[in-house]
Amino acid sequence: MGFQQGLSGLNISAKSLDVISHNVANANTSGFKASQSVFADVFSSTLGANPYMQVGSGGSLPAVRQNFNQGGVTNTGNALDMAINGDGFFMVKRPVNGDEQKFYTRAGEFQLDKDGNVTTASGYQVLGYPGSSGAGDPVGLTVPFDAGKPKATPDVAVQVNLDANEDVKDPAQFDAEDPETYNFSTTVQSYDSLGIPHTLSLYYVKTSEADATWDVFWSMEGHAASNPPLQITDALDFNASGLLEGTSGTLETPVVGSSRALLNIDLGGALDNSAFMGTETAPATYDNQISLTLSPTQFSLPSSVSTVSQGGYPPGELAAVSVTREGRLQARYTNGDVKDVGTIAVASFRNPNGLISMGDSLWSATLESGEGVAGNPGSGTRGLIQGGAIEDSNVDLTAELVQMIIQQRAYQANAQSIRTQDQILQTVINLR
User: Fold this and answer.
1) Beta-carbon count within 10 A of 411 CB
2) DSSP, res 294
3) Residue 376: closest CA among 80, 67, 133
4) First to last CA, the chain
5) What gap in Å lies between CA 8 and CA 350, rounded to an integer?
6) Residue 139 near residue 130 (C-beta atoms within 8 A)
7) Which of 21, 98, 209, 231 has the fewest Cβ atoms nearer than 10 Å?
8) What are the extents of the domains in the chain?
9) Coil/strand/helix, residue 254
10) What is the pTM of this model?
11) Which residues lie closer than 8 Å to 164 by C-beta, 6 or more apart?
């Protein structure tokens, strides 16, 4: 009788409804991948059976296959949220010391824990490559809260125009306190090893009209050696076009005809910070000499500074974290410092359908899937990272509801098949 066929139909319809219900329940789960029931028919194999007289034994559900197609991407505004545009999986590990078992996820709702570790909402630590090299074995990524330490100014660059119409002055009469003894001055704020700001002042004195030469003096606030200001060159020499032609003295041009002049200002030794921090505070130092780069011109325009830049900064605190398309995790500090904390690792699989679901939007590798091959986002077939966004579930609710109706009807039909077989059997039993 056909009870076996009807019963198998009930079983696979019930299992398929379980799959559909699981999909519908996770329609709003970030990074979720919908599953699909794979059906197969069942035939009893008999040696020498007549191929024209085979009657099937029902149906089976040999596999539940996941659909790893890309889900939609929703912007969240959370800087640590990430979505992979394309193939691949984020790599995470258990938050237990010594446990290096790796898991894989498409849910990029990441956050920082109390120690600065980049983790999932469930506490799994996100793996990547330290720094910006993207090389080596993936390790847990940590954003240092204390990395906003100060940096002593290593270099200063000044682009300035010196008015060709200025009067010549005697450099021997120069006095930083008397503006009448120099033609123009500029200041640059620099920082010592403690992050305390010190003002570097540059004074320009026109010494010759015919030769178009200028002397430059410098002084550093809190630096005893520069009090009074020190002369750093015998001359800046300009040609008839108003461009720097050469230098003499301690200031040097790196290349003949270059528009730049270089000088290493020796700030070795301690700086007097008593005016800033009190006399009981240990003095700070500049780690290196300051490399001063002047880019001067002499045109018939009022003396002015075009650009000023310097490479130091004061201490700062962690202000924000962001991620680039290439997966570089960057920490930004209140002092303007930006550090590449690491590069997010993305793993690819030859057979992602061989992954086994572990819950918490995680998968684990199996023999069927093979080990995940880690790499940088955008390399090979791996997708790029979209920061401040998450990947939505790829469940199509309309299709799932239609499949639900189909499986409901199939279940009812199989139940009716069993009822019909029962009625036939009852008729046979009642024969007298």
Assistant:
1) 18
2) E
3) 133
4) 20
5) 33
6) yes
7) 98
8) 3-69+394-415, 73-147+318-391, 155-310
9) coil
10) 0.71
11) 212, 242, 298, 299, 300
Q: What is the mean pLDDT of residues 179-200?
A: 89
Identify the pLDDT of residue 281: 46
Residue linked to tokens 């991620």: 323
Helix (H, G, I), strand (E, B) or coil at 219: strand
The pLDDT score that the predictor gives to residue 258 is: 62
Burial class (CB in 10 A: 0-12, 13-18, 19+), 300: exposed
In degrees rounded to 5, what are phi and psi of residue 17? -65, -35
Respond yes or no on whether the N-terminal peptide bond of residue 228 is cis (omega within 30° of 0).
Answer: yes
Model confidence pLDDT, tens digit, residues 413-429: 988 888 888 888 888 88
In whole angstroms, give the CA distance from residue 66 to residue 68: 6
411 alpha carbon, distance to own chain's centre: 50
Class of domain 155-310 as given by CATH: mainly beta
Neighbours of 56 (CB within 10 A): 12
Residue 304 tokens, joined: 């002015």
pLDDT digits (tens, 9 = 90+) for 82-98: 999 999 999 999 876 66
**How many Å apart are CA 141 and CA 131, to the nearest integer?**
10
Label residue 283 by pLDDT band (50, 70, 90): low
Percent of the chain exceeding pLDDT 90 equals: 47
Residue 229 has pLDDT above 60, yes or no: yes
Look-up: residue for tokens 């700001």?
197
- Chain position carrying tokens 């709003």: 28
